[in-house]
From TrEMBL:
Taxonomic lineage from the root: Bacteria, Pseudomonadati, Pseudomonadota, Alphaproteobacteria, Sphingomonadales
The species this protein was found in: Sphingomonas carotinifaciens
Residues in the signal sequence: 1-24
Protein name: Spore coat protein U (SCPU) domain-containing protein
Pfam families xref list: SCPU
Keywords linked to the UniProt accession: Capsid protein, Signal, Virion
Keyword Signal among record annotations: yes
Stretches assigned to the Spore coat protein U/FanG domain: 28-166
Length: 169
């Protein structure tokens, strides 16, 4: 038994002393990267709409001016450094470029209205509003208001319109 142990010890020492044997390299590097594209997203309400303005109720016999706004405005989130434009069309029932609320019963009875954005006094429809998201800023709220002039007499009932808001970046 003693002879066998000495033979194994010599074999192990011999393998460790072979000329040209080098340790294997076990560490390398690899690159990790990502590209972030400029982009924007719009926060929507539970119905998928970007907002809703309810002008309330007016007496159709006396006429009135009604005004209201979107509670939280249009909520935009964009990549910092992005410049976006937001525009509104004149709605589905526009006449000569002026938005109109159409009566739900016949669609022929109309009430003119205008949208105003960001505290402006110039009607928004047909214009683009430029928004800048400087570094450190990624969310903006765009307050939108509507003003309707109810003629007298006005047919009783529900009036509505749908406006398309477009965000470009």
């Amino acid at each position: 038994m003693v002879t066998r142990r000495a033979g194994i010890a010599v074999l192990v020492v011999g393998v460790l002393l072979l000329p040209g044997a080098a340790p294997a390299e076990t560490a390398r590097t690899f690159k990790v990267s990502a590209s972030i594209a400029s982009g924007c997203a719009v926060t929507v309400d539970g119905t998928g709409a970007w907002g809703r303005i309810d002008l309330g109720t007016a007496n159709g016999a006396t006429g009135a001016t009604l005004e209201a706004g979107v509670t939280d405005g249009v909520q935009l989130a964009c990549t910092p450094g992005t410049v976006a434009t937001v525009s509104a069309d004149a709605g589905e029932h526009a006449r000569a470029g002026v938005p109109q609320l159409a009566h739900a019963g016949d669609g022929a009875s109309l009430i003119p209205y205008h949208l105003f954005v960001n505290g402006g006094t110039t009607p928004w429809e047909g214009q683009s509003i430029a928004l800048t998201f400087p570094p450190g800023t990624s969310r903006l709220s765009l307050p939108v208001r509507a003003r309707a002039t109810v003629p007298r007499p006005a047919r009783a009932g529900r009036y509505a319109d749908v406006v398309r808001i477009t965000v470009r970046w």
